[in-house]
Amino acid sequence: MTAVKIDRDTAMACKAWPFEEARKVLGKIGAKLPAKGYVLFQTGYGPSGLPHIGTFGEVARTSMVRRAFETLSDFPTKMICFSDDMDGLRKVPSNVPKGDMLAQYMDHPLSSIPDPFEKYESFAHHNNAKLREFLDGFGFEYEFLSSTDCYKGGKFDTALLKMLEHYEDVKNAVLPILGEERTATYSPFLPISPKTGRVLQVPMEEVRLASGTIVFKDEDGTLTEIPVTGGHVKCQWRPDWGLRWFALDVDYEMAGEDLQTAADIAGKITHIMGGKKPAGFHYKLFLDEHNQKISKSKGNGLTMEQWLTYAPHESLAYYLYGRPTSGKKLYFDVIPKAVDEYIQFVKSLEAQTPEQKIQNPAWYIQGKDQSTPVTFALLLNLASASNALDSNTMWGFIKRYQPSATPENAPFLGRLVEYAVKYYEDFVLPAKQYRAPDAREQTALTDLVSRLSQLPAGADAEVIQTEVFSAGKENGYDKEELRSWFQAIYEICLGQSQGPRFGSFIELYGIDPTIKLIRDALSGDFLKDKAA
């Protein structure tokens, strides 16, 4: 990732949240390059399931902080996406094949369980591949790191021996949040049974610092001694988090608000071992339209796959940029607004001063070739007016408005057209509710047809919009009622209660097709079609 050269004083004064977080990283490292030679940003992933919107959000937001940091500093950076693939399987996912086979491997490390999809050497390898494919598809810059590789390859050995040295202190950092029964058996280390291969949650019979080993009762009751190094143990998840921070010297990691207590404990463990907790913050979890937390089991709210069916991933990153420490509603109705707000930020970015650029969300997100002459709202209304169920219909209108535009030379617009058709088909079309005009609306719309008929073929949106205003004002709509006039146009002609500036819509759709649209609405054709 290449930092954008912006005056350092300007960057230090920026109040955008990624820069606030970047300054925390500078504070954590003491404004000097760490001994490892780079500043490390990390995100974590549990590969018992497939990547989801939380995965995207964490990587996208961390990337934003990384970009801000690279603007504040010349220090090299890395971002690691860490997969906890040595964790034991606790339950069988409902969305994968061969559930009966997986059930036979309960408590085995995910990286030692056969792949139910029969494509990779293990279940973890399959999900890790999906994670990398997922991240690569969005153009994220990162390095992948596997828990199994770190434990078995020796990368964690020094940290594991350090944890063994401070065994009681690490254990005591976790005990206050545990119940009485769990407290009696808790150990930071989870031995992997040499006999069954299962990750065991058992108490330690003995901790032998001199030999770097632990003693426990295996599943058959025999006392067993194994080293804590070399992949023979896996740490409980809170100590594992602290172990990772210490071993890798992580400088920044964010997490959800539901993990705040766990992160505090992991930070204490890192400190006990002689390290320093990373900088970071706790983002709020997503809400549905009723302000209820989104739950996979309830199926409420909006999934990432659903968002990406109807809008580009850049718009989702933009939506995640805003107010990460406040609860965000995630449901279908927020999509069009998010897309158009992102488009507007992209449009304004080029002409902005450096101070303005780093306050612009698009500066943290923008990919290549993302200019578009048409907003998403206009495309949705174009689809609605033309009843477009395919992109060719849409491009027929767009090429009259912008003759040089094609899906090849305007790829972002091409993506938006496909999304608009799908959104229209699934959400707008089923909800269309046309109504008949009242007497005043009939008169005003008839006048609008007359005014449009007198306009030259090349009239621009502003000229058209003036005529739309005039048709309303001169037919009984005073200044306070003009909002109702535009609402009436949308309800009578498009079967919906709101839309973009009608002048811009007519410029895109065409004057003659709009005249026909209004005449068909006035004759009741749309109501007849709905009844049929």
Mean pLDDT over all positions: 91
Strand-pairing-aware structural class: mainly alpha
CATH class of the largest domain: Alpha Beta
Largest sheet: 3 strands, parallel
Into which percentage range does the β-strand content fall?
A: 5-15%
> Could you state the CATH homologous superfamily of the largest domain?
HUPs
Low-confidence stretches: none
Q: Rg, please? A: 29 Å
Q: In CATH terms, what is the fold-level topology of the largest domain?
A: Rossmann fold
What would you say this structure looks like, in words?
By secondary structure, the chain is mostly helical. It folds into four domains: 8-177 and 236-283, 3-Layer(aba) Sandwich (Rossmann fold); 288-365, no CATH class; 376-424, no CATH class; 439-531, Arc Repressor Mutant, subunit A (Orthogonal Bundle), CATH 1.10.10. Helices cover 50% and strands 8% of the residues. The chain has 25 helices and twelve strands. The strands form five sheets. Strands 1-2-3 form a three-stranded parallel sheet. Helix 3 (53-72) links the parallel strand 1 and strand 2. The protein is elongated. The model has no long low-confidence stretch (mean pLDDT 91).
Give the topology.
Elements: H1 8-13, H2 17-29, E1 39-45, H3 53-72, E2 77-83, H4 99-103, H5 123-137, E3 143-146, H6 147-152, H7 157-165, H8 167-174, H9 180-185, E4 189-191, E5 206-208, E6 213-217, E7 223-227, E8 233-235, H10 237-248, E9 255-256, H11 260-272, E10 282-283, E11 286-287, H12 304-310, H13 313-321, E12 328-329, H14 334-349, H15 354-357, H16 361-365, H17 376-386, H18 391-401, H19 411-431, H20 439-453, H21 461-473, H22 482-494, H23 502-509, H24 511-522, H25 525-531
Parallel strand pairs: 1-2, 2-3, 9-10, 11-12
Antiparallel strand pairs: 4-8, 5-6, 6-7
